[in-house]
Amino acid sequence: MPTTLKKKGPSATGINAAASLDWEFAESDTRTLTHGIHRYSGKFIPQVARQAIELVTNPGELVLDLYCGSGTTLLEAAQCRRHSIGIDMNPLATMISRVKSSRLSLAESSSALAAVMETADILAAGQIGEPSLFGAGSSPGREESNDWRLSAPWYTKWFQPRVLQQLVALHASIATVTNVPARECALVAFSDILRRVSNAKGGYPNVMFDRNAGKKALPAPLFRNRLAEVLSAVDSLRDITDWIQPSVQDGDARSLPLESVSVDAIVTHPPYIGSIPYAEYGVLSLTWLGHDAKALDATLTGGKRQSRTVVDRFQADYFAMFAEAFRVLKRSRHMFVMVANPVVKGETVDLVAMSKVGAARVGFELAADAIRKGVNRRANKMAEEHLLFFLKP
After folding, report:
1. Contact present, 242 and 167 (Cβ < 8 Å)
2. Which of 187, 328, 317, 201 is nearest to 257 (CA)?
């Protein structure tokens, strides 16, 4: 039998009023605290996540985001005194989420990363990045002079020689850090500058090779500045009172590692089928982190976007997610889903209708449907977003 709730969830009246609330947050800062530590496509607006969390939960309850992406839901839940669990199949996403919700002090992170910062400073000060970087002496990178990446076709395609030499030296220095949260902070900073120093075309979210790429800026100064920003942002979380630390897990929304009827609410922003190819967009970072972006893309919901069956596969995986969501959610509680209708292979897919059908098939009832115009999205190709509140009877 399902667990009997000791405290009532949010009132039906509050959920019914969702459509009349302001969901635009047009003038709001969406990069507060650690929200801006790493670029990530298709992110939740923090204020939307916060408002949904406060509508469907009470303080002290447990919120699940089963497509947690870069951790927006988790950071907002932690601030408003909710427990939270974030699950994602993308290892880049879960790493960003862990860093985004880390409360590592600036003193501790600076101590743990002293050698990394010194390496970056030496590289930046001398603008080292010539072949002489790997010569005799104590210059950073000596041990990496024979690093396989310096001649590997993929790396030499995407990064110019001087850039690649510095990246190898920086990455090797980061790898020696034994403090895991500090090391991941450095990896997030490293990951976030890769696109800027690569031979990818600018102005596109997807990573396309630019055969006419000009001379790229050396990464060491960019990395050093970005790392300082990440560490400062992470340190700022320590000022938040009543913080409840989120849990971040690598996992699959179609097969959740959670007990039945164990969560009080689900707040999530599902993937946009093949409209946002998460593995493709993150290929530079994923590869440097040691992951196979193509293999990941084959497993993601909505992956393999060029496939003829991408929409059908997405729907099957999406409906499986709703079944798992229904299983782990407590009775009389809500699932919040923000979706829009993406364009896939030139055709608009009615993801809003698909969401309602998938939820209804497993037993959810539609409690509210609010609309957001998304005026502060960077790329407003989907005219409006639907904020769907589903109730598990």
Report:
1. no
2. 328
Go through the domains of the chain in sequence order and give each one's CATH number: 12-103+243-392 (3.40.50.150), 106-237 (no CATH)
Q: In this structure, are residues 102 and 181 in contact, taking their beta carbons and an 8 Å threshold? A: yes
pTM above 0.85, yes or no: yes
The reported pLDDT for the residue numbered 305 is 81
The structure tokens 């002293």 sit at 114
Sign of the CA dihedral running 321, 323, 327, 331: positive
Rounded to 5°, angle at Cα 248 from 328 and 246: 85
pLDDT digits (tens, 9 = 90+) for 175-202: 999 999 999 999 999 999 999 999 999 8
Q: Is the pLDDT of residue 382 over 70?
A: no
**What is the pLDDT at residue 152?**
97
Residue 334 tokens, joined: 């809500």
Q: Between 265 and 135, name the one with better pLDDT.
A: 265
Among the listed residues 41, 47, 81, 46, the one whose alpha carbon sits nearest the alpha carbon of residue 63: 81
